[in-house]
Amino acid sequence: MYFINLTLGGVSSGIVYAAVALALVLIWRATRIVNFAQGGMLMITTFVALGVIDATGSYWLGLLAALVSGFVLGAVVERVLVRPIENGPPMNAVIVTLGLLLFLQAVAGMVWGGSPRSFPPLLGIKGFTVGDARLLLSPSDLFVIGAVLVVMALLVLLFRVTPVGLRMRAAAFSPEVARMFGVRVGRVLTLGWALAGAVGALAGVLVAPATFVGPNQFDAVLVFGFAAAVVGGLDSPPGAVVGGLVVGLTLSYVSGYLGSEVALLGALAVLMTVLMIRPNGLFSRTSVRRV
């Protein structure tokens, strides 16, 4: 039973990392930029959702507010901060997104304070009972798992089937050629950031009941989400989910059998092993061009 609970706990935490990884994968596939400010953006939208829930008592209105604010925030960030440096060296985007992360954390601290706040889950967080044993899996965990799988499926369809997704991929890989075929690259990139902001907002709402809400509460989740995206491959939504599960299970098993103090080393070992064997990730089919 101990192993089963470790596995269930790893799946529960891993699917949370996968939710963040999906947002990172979406923005990478749409713009070829790793958004290090994703944690700050989803933190802001989660605060917005919490405010709406406190004011209305409706989880769904809070979720809607988070999605809308994430969509708008993503579009504004692309238009105001990313577009002026999109043709510059790749390091410019890294510096800008890291600076944006620090700025958003500072703004959140001034507006909402530095004390973490609890976020109400949609469903119960009490684990299921099997006989006399309590499982580390709750209705809330099942909701998060289902939501992440649906988002993964929608992203796969977006990039493989829809004209919008194909335009995003063309604009990201070869904007000059895309313009020759009539693709409005600027609008496509803005849409990519906006959709990534909305996916990140959903991830924040899903993650918040387990991590609380505060200016720096999502830092660790962002780190593990980034690791999950790299392990699975920054080009692959299914890879993001698999990578999240690999990271979550690794942390759970190492913490359970060897101690929590070496859990991070276990995750690092998995990340380094994957990068040595498949530098572009387990599910990536393209070569990485920007970091």
UniProtKB/TrEMBL annotation:
Hydrolase listed as a keyword: no
One GO biological process term: amino acid transport
Keyword entries, A-Z: Amino-acid transport, Cell membrane, Membrane, Transmembrane, Transmembrane helix, Transport
Domain of life, per lineage: Bacteria
InterPro entries reported for this sequence: ABC_transp_permease (IPR001851), BCAA_transport_permease (IPR052157)
Mode of membrane association: Multi-pass membrane protein
Cross-referenced PANTHER family: ABC TRANSPORTER PERMEASE PROTEIN, BRANCHED-CHAIN AMINO ACID TRANSPORT SYSTEM PERMEASE PROTEIN LIVH
Similarity-based family: Belongs to the binding-protein-dependent transport system permease family. LivHM subfamily.
Protein name per UniProt: Amino acid/amide ABC transporter membrane protein 1, HAAT family
Organism listed in the record: Actinacidiphila glaucinigra
